[in-house]
């Protein structure tokens, strides 16, 4: 199973030495002894111990000509038992003042006696490389390496615009990890440690503690925003331009564990799920290094064939034969790896088929329940044609609570009515213009929602009259934490500020004036009604 893959590019006169020092120090930990510089850069095999686990190292080098290529392949048994073998392959390509490094970590499940699942973590060798580069005045990461530093957004609105431009870049080859503060201004994840783990893989973006969540959502949209301590992983653009995201809410971060290591490991899993395969394509592999060494050796022999005597020719043939044997070993390793990957793909396909069957079964159950509900007339207050007809033809207008009940029951697949909205509606039972309210709610969850999906809010809001809809609140409300709290409602265990609202009249009279505050859940394409009642407080009242 592929656990981790990364590739880095470095510049500078000391880049190669910085990387080799890091790899040498890391290999000493794996083997229990160090290697001389000439051993580190020459073909060879070594055995040692990583703690109590035995380890095997194979080094392959192609040093005739430029660029020079090296590969270090090390295997060792897992620390928790003999059922799992770890395989780490480091590759390096060296040219003057330019070094490319790749790292891939795999596991080979050779037994069913495997203790626990694999947790994502950055190999120490990557950390050592980053540390050596930081300490060297003549080595640095390439400017396009993601995660070299933390970026920040908020409270300036222009920073969100800059982030959006970065998110939408079609050539963006890395995820963006957006880290938000809690309501108290703290962070559930240490962004500096997270950035160190993500170097080469993803860009960490920190949201300022005093950020304006409404401004952020207005610029970035709901799917690309984060709040209340959540971390939003925004993946690389797909070929069709669609950009997926994965929101790790504060509850999930806390479920992963109390310490930073567990939370960062969970986020690294989300990132590597998106980056492993593209990064693997950049890998410098042992079999590729051996193949290059063979080609260069034969090319060199052909160029010098007229100068070779019988003894020289014999030596060249023996060396070519030795390298060919190495290539055969690498070919067998590649074949074994392909078989392992095929087995993993087959297992994943089996899982997908099982999920599809489960989804089909649930869809069938839902269809059956809908049919049963239609045949039985339902159990809701407004279920059944007779009840609905009696409601719309009665002389008195519906109450706000009845309006919400009817909208929820009729359009439950398009909206969510929160309990706090129902409670506020009950407190506005004396409101007189229920039919107008009902029609506005109907437009909100049907035509407005459809237009929002197809053409965005600027077009959707035109469905309402100028005095019926407000996309935001006044500056006085937005600038007051107290006023903002009045307009904040819990949705899916997360506090959400709902500044968009429908409005009827402006008089200070609960029988004539009402406000409906709502939120657009773009991820689930749902209108979320958080409040339906009297005009909420403003700074002037």
Protein model, in words:
It is a single chain. The protein is of the alpha+beta class and 541 residues long. The protein folds into 4 domains: 2-141, Alpha-D-Glucose-1,6-Bisphosphate, Chain A, domain 4, CATH 3.30.530; 151-280, Glutaredoxin, CATH 3.40.30; 305-355; 385-533, no CATH class. The protein is built from 17 helices and 19 strands. It has helices spanning 15-31, 37-40, 124-135, 157-167, 191-198, 213-220, 250-256, 260-280, 286-303, 310-376, 385-393, 400-410, 419-426, 434-455, 457-460, 475-478, 481-486; strands at residues 2-11, 44-50, 53-62, 68-77, 84-95, 98-109, 140-141, 151-153, 176-179, 203-207, 231-234, 245-248, 415-417, 469-470, 488-491, 494-497, 501-504, 514-521, 526-533. The strands form 4 sheets. Strands 2-3-4-5-6-1-7 form a 7-stranded antiparallel sheet. Strands 8-10-9-11-12 form a 5-stranded mixed sheet, sandwiched between helices. A 5-stranded mixed sheet has the order 13-19-18-17-14. α5 packs parallel to α8.
The overall number of domains is 4
Shape: elongated
Structural class by secondary-structure content: alpha+beta
Q: How many angstroms does the end-to-end distance come to? A: 62 Å
Tally of helical segments: 17
Q: Write out the strand line-up for the largest beta sheet, numbering strands in chain order.
A: 2-3-4-5-6-1-7
Q: Give the averaged pLDDT, no decimals.
A: 85
